[in-house]
Amino acid sequence: MLPSWLTEDYVQKALGNFYKDNQLRVQKVWAKPATEKGENFVGVMTRIYVDFVQGDGTEQKKSYILKQAVPANAPQAKLFGEYDVYNRELEMYDVVLPKMANILREAGINDKLMAEAVIVDRERTIMILEDLAPLRYTNADRVKQLDMVHTKMVLDMLAKFHAAGMVLNQREPELLSRNYDAHFFSRSKKGYGEVFTGLFRAFIRYVKSKPNLKNRYADKLENIITNLMDYAGRSVDVGEKDLKTLIHGDCWTTNVMYLYDDEGNPTTVLPIDFQFSTLTSPAVDLHYFFSTSLQSDVKQQETELVQYHYYALKRTLEALSYKGYFPSLFEYQLQFEKRRFLSVIIANVFQPIMVYQGSEDCEFVNLYQDTPEGIKFQDSMYEDMEIQRRVDTLLPVLDAKGLLDAH
Which of 193, 276, 351, 364 could disulfide-pair with 250, CB 3.0 to 4.6 Å? Predict the structure, then answer.
């Protein structure tokens, strides 16, 4: 069902401007949902199909993606309104990402940085984007997660993204000083505090259900929960000697899309979904990505992966003739380690949602509210044997690093 305002005239005007073709004529528009229930909590995505004739008489049949805010009566609407995620993503597609792509092109780096925006309509808080599916972009399997080849491609992409963000912030600091401070763990916002606290309580419930974990960690985790968002907030703080740039903010398996060659090898990767792009340390993207998206054997090489990203970032900044502070590898590893608390939260309470294969109702409120349906869903997340194995592996490491103590 198309919104009433999305008429053939509206689409025709948008496509005419996008293709710079005043003679373009739309003949037919129809649509169907672009995501399944539970795949995208932040917005509503609709695939629009358009038959049109170009000014030179060429007939075209193309599809596009309409991104809209969740309905005002959705339980999460207020939360996403507080973090201003929709206006932020509109500006990313309309202003920031094109500027970043231009910065990279200046150095001969012509990688595609995003899906092209056909129209960014701030009045209606919507975007129509090119559909990446016909271009053969596809997601990797969120449950199987990423091997080393897929992982390094994302790190190369993030290095270009972070480098372009650093140069843009140097050139136009006022642009990124607006509306790019609201990460999940921002102290000035409250909404995600309730979400993460609810998720963390579910994690503690699981730990208490396992005697060997309960005896060692339950009390420590109970003490953490009162300072949860403060500890996480410190992880996105940036000091004077910290690298600072625009990060993707929500970089995980489902928010990157790959192109593959005929042998099934990935050749290109493209980021999507920029609602949580934030001005902070690039190490925040690395922790988020490592904690949500990597196969276990790949994650074990985390230190080498930080090194890989560091050198890719350094090379890109040199190509961009960046003039500014850049840390040594040792200093950058310390900046990454300083944000290790993020893995306490993300690996233990976010990743189980991201690889969930169960049958319980995955409505947004069920992720964190202690209703009967919510508790049923949350408990079912930890029934996965791989998640249990990861918790068993991760908790001793976090404990040994002092992250489960007051700090």
Answer: 276
* Distance of alpha carbon 311 from alpha carbon 85, whole angstroms: 31
CATH number of 8-69: 3.30.360
Indicate whether 136 pLDDT > 60: yes
CA distance 40 to 369: 18
Q: DSSP letters of 260-291? A: E-TTS-EEEEEE---TT-EEE-HHHHHHHHHH
What mean pLDDT do residues 7-12 have? 96
Please say whether the dihedral angle defined by the alpha carbons of residues 74, 76, 78 and 82, taken in this order, is positive or negative.
negative
Reported pTM: 0.94
**CA-CA distance, 116 to 282, in Å (whole number)?**
24
Q: What is the largest CA-CA distance in the chain?
A: 74
Q: What is the mean pLDDT of residues 83-88?
A: 92
Please, which pLDDT band fits residue 90 given cuts at 50, 70 and 90?
A: very high
Name which CATH class applies to 88-115+140-400. alpha beta
The conformational region for residue 271 under phi > 0 = left, psi -120 to 50 = alpha, else beta, is: beta
pLDDT at 277: 96
**Alpha helix ranges (H) inside 179-299:** 191-208, 211-225, 228-236, 282-293, 296-299
Domain ranges of the chain: 8-69, 88-115+140-400
Contact 15, 51 (CB under 8 A): no
CB count in 10 Å sphere of residue 127: 24
